[in-house]
Design brief:
The protein is mainly α. It is built from 31 helices and ten strands. InterPro entries: S04_transporter_CS, SLC26A/SulP_dom, SLC26A/SulP_fam, STAS_dom, STAS_dom_sf.
Length: 741
């Protein structure tokens, strides 16, 4: 019978899913081990402090292998180019490079307008930095070059330091565009050199982790606000308006008000040109989305629009007949290198650091996305160096700061790009355009470039949907997103980023000051302890209180931790201690009065004429009473000293216990502090733990610490005399055992 029951049980388990069978087996587990304190555990496990490794020592080691490793690390092209597979990768890289170059051409021309520079400098910025990144970069799929957010940040610098008002000439107050553009080009190239120096320096000291302080909600809120700034900055080209150059806080609001004020002065031909170009670009993008599976590469809508608009402008004469502003002369060939202006360094340092951090954050975030998708690794520090060299060398050749573009990177990936060769191919196509074909776009209307920029903002403007998703998932992240967006819109890009970073760090500190405090109880028939407020069946162990915090304890929240502990324990610890001390003082005062009365009786008995037997009896009684009172007084003093020092071995006499003093006793005799969330220990934390030990021992409660990491134990064992345990379960069992001792 037993055998058949056993076989039936096995058959039943065989029919169950694997997970349920595992759960059935888990129920049979029974873990049992002896209770140990920290010293016993260290003795049993032969604990020794881990040997420290000093990485800086390897920096001074010299060998052929190390030199080769450093060369391959800082010049990655030497590592992957010899292994390049022509048969498998070349065709895809050629198609991807051509596709990216077709997008790079109109975007380079358009984003130069965002930076406040002549369009040809956008082509320069699409050639030099891209080729430098091909040599030093580690990401295979990102497309380095002009980017809307970077361009608008550069534009805010050039327009604030070289506004149109500084170049007015003649009685009709016309702007000397040649002089203005010369100054702005010098500003942008010097800014690019400074950005490159910052990025290279941070990369060499392995400071790539700085981007971790820019959380995803912060970056998305910032880029959304930047896209709004880009959109508003292009309205003057869409409507053909002449606007004042503004920078600083609230400049965007003033620009919107000025656009609304000057709308009646709009050039009709410019508005129509922008609308037609915008509609054409949107239709081509919709067609690309619909036919994506059937096309080997996307239809180059931007390039076709630029070619068509240039031909129509030249044939119809949009500038002389309708007043449509055009790009103008685009010089053929490359410009010679020029040294940056050191006099501008002091005024550009703050802008350069902000642009360096933002550019790297955008590049590394996209690089890691593609690396995870295709199964390779991106070195954040080398990416910082590569991007810095691209900006540094590009600044010498009069480029403005660049980063990578999400739209071009997606096109490079979808067109079959496999390595950085695609970037090199696109830069060579741009070089051909600069040398031979650039001058053909002199009649291109600026309104068409503005329309191309606005249409390409769709991806970043769609990030407004983050508000709905973050409201459902994490409202703290939503708060960071909103603060970043509002600060960037109102205070401009540089100040807005600083405010966003400071706010997000302060929010982290505030969240550690408002952790989740809980009292743990044992789930029936298990050794699992959970919050009694969340688990209705969890029951506190009789006589034991287990307290847990969800955040580490340090100087900013140590006092809040102590207050929450005393509140959750259900005992007014401070009031109980004060009542105990008050009654002990009354007891001492009563002993002092008794001593004085005995002294008076002694003096009176010595002066009186009484028999020797009586005097002897009085003196014996006096000495006995005096010894008793001294013993009691010294006992009270010893108790106060013991309470102040918090020594564990100090034992209060029966006459000074809470029960003897007529005070209510706590409903628990042991307190377990679950310190599993403790990640580090500072002096304020140790002092607070000392105070907790002292206060609870005053009310006759022993304190234990559980689940504390070894590093924290090593920092704090010198200052605390409590007992340690590896888990709340083990220490709780030890606390329960005190009932039977």
């Amino acid at each position: 019978m037993g055998l058949s029951e056993a076989s039936g049980q096995r058959d039943t388990q065989a029919l169950l899913p694997v997970t349920q069978a595992m759960e059935l087996r888990k129920r049979d587990y029974h873990v049992e081990r002896p209770l140990m304190n920290q010293e016993q555990l260290e003795e049993l496990g032969c604990w020794t402090s881990a040997a420290r490794t000093y990485q800086w020592r390897t920096w001074f080691q010299c060998s052929r292998a190390r030199a080769q490793a450093l060369l391959f690390q800082h010049l990655p092209v030497l590592a992957w180019l010899p292994r390049y597979s022509l048969r498998d990768w070349l065709l895809g890289d050629l198609l991807a490079g051509l596709s990216v170059a077709i997008m790079q051409l109109p975007q380079g021309l358009a984003y130069a307008l965002l930076a406040g520079l002549p369009p040809v400098f956008g082509l320069y910025s699409s050639f030099y930095p891209v080729f430098i990144y091909f040599l030093f970069g580690t990401s295979r799929h990102i497309s380095v070059g002009t980017f809307a957010v970077m361009s608008v940040m550069v534009g805010s610098v050039t327009e604030s330091l070289a506004p149109d008002e500084n170049f007015l000439q003649g009685a009709n107050s016309t702007v000397d565009e040649a002089a203005r553009d010369g100054v702005r080009v010098q500003l942008a190239s010097t800014l690019s050199v400074l950005v490159g120096l910052f990025q290279v320096g941070l990369g060499l000291v392995r400071f790539g982790f700085v981007v971790t302080y820019l959380s995803e909600p912060l970056v998305r809120g910032y880029t959304t606000a930047a896209s709004v700034q880009v959109f508003i900055s292009q309205l003057k080209y869409v409507f053909g308006l002449q606007l004042s150059s503004r920078s600083g806080p609230l400049s965007l609001i003033y620009t919107v008000l000025e656009v609304c004020w000057k709308l009646p002065q709009s050039v009709v031909g410019t508005v129509v040109t922008a609308l037609v170009a915008g509609v054409a670009l949107v239709l081509v993008k919709l067609l690309n989305d619909k036919l994506r599976r059937y096309l080997p590469m996307p239809i180059p809508g931007e390039l076709l629009t630029l070619i068509g608009a240039t031909g129509i402008s030249y044939g119809v004469g949009l500038k002389p007949r309708f007043g449509v502003d055009v790009v103008g002369n685009i010089p053929a060939g490359l410009v010679p290198p020029a040294a940056p202006s050191p006099q501008l360094f002091t005024s550009l340092l703050g802008y350069a650091f902000t642009i360096a951090v933002v550019g790297f954050a955008i590049a590394i975030s996209l690089g890691k996305i593609f690396a995870l998708r295709h199964g390779y690794r991106v070195d954040s520090n080398q990416e910082l160096v590569a991007l810095g060299l691209s900006n540094l060398i590009g600044g010498v050749f009069q480029c403005f700061p660049v980063s990578c573009s999400m739209s071009r990177s997606l096109v490079q990936e979808s067109a079959g790009g496999n390595t950085q060769v695609a970037g090199a191919v696109s830069s060579l196509f741009i070089l051909i355009i600069i040398v031979k074909l650039g001058e053909l776009f002199r009649d291109l209307p600026k309104a068409v470039l503005a329309a191309a920029i606005i249409v390409n903002l769709k991806g970043m403007l769609m990030q407004f949907t983050d508000i709905r998703s973050l409201w459902k998932s994490n409202r703290m992240d939503l708060l960071i997103w909103l603060v970043t967006f509002v600060a960037t819109i109102l205070l401009n890009l540089d100040i807005g980023l600083a405010v966003a970073v400071v706010f997000s760090l302060l929010l982290v500190i505030v969240r550690t000051q408002l952790p989740r405090y809980s009292v743990l109880g044992q789930v029936p028939d298990t050794d699992i302890y959970q919050d009694v407020a969340e688990y209705s069946e969890a029951r506190e162990v009789p006589g034991v209180k287990v307290f847990r915090s969800s955040a580490t304890m340090y100087f900013a929240n140590a006092e809040l931790y102590s207050d929450a502990l005393k509140q959750r324990c259900g005992v007014d610890v401070d009031h109980l201690i004060s009542q105990k001390k008050k009654r002990l003082r009354k007891q001492e005062q009563k002993l002092k009065r008794l001593r004085k009365s005995l002294q008076k009786q002694t003096a009176a008995s010595e002066g009186a004429s009484v028999s020797i037997h009586v005097n002897t009896s009085v003196r014996d009684m006096e000495s006995n009473n005096m010894e008793d009172s001294k013993a009691k007084a010294s006992t009270g003093k010893e108790l106060e000293d013991t309470a102040a020092s918090g020594q564990e071995d100090a034992k209060a006499p029966d006459g000074s216990t809470l029960k003897a003093l007529g005070l209510p006793q706590p409903h628990f005799h042991s307190l377990v502090l679950d310190l599993g969330a403790l990640s580090f220990v500072d002096t304020v934390c140790i002092k607070s733990l000392k105070n907790i030990f002292r206060d609870f021992r005053e009310i006759e409660v022993e304190v234990y610490m559980a689940a504390c990491h070894s590093a924290c134990r090593g920092d704090s064992t010198s200052g605390l005399g409590g007992e340690w345990g590896s888990s709340s379960q083990g220490v709780c069992q030890a606390a329960q055992a005190k009932v039977f001792l």
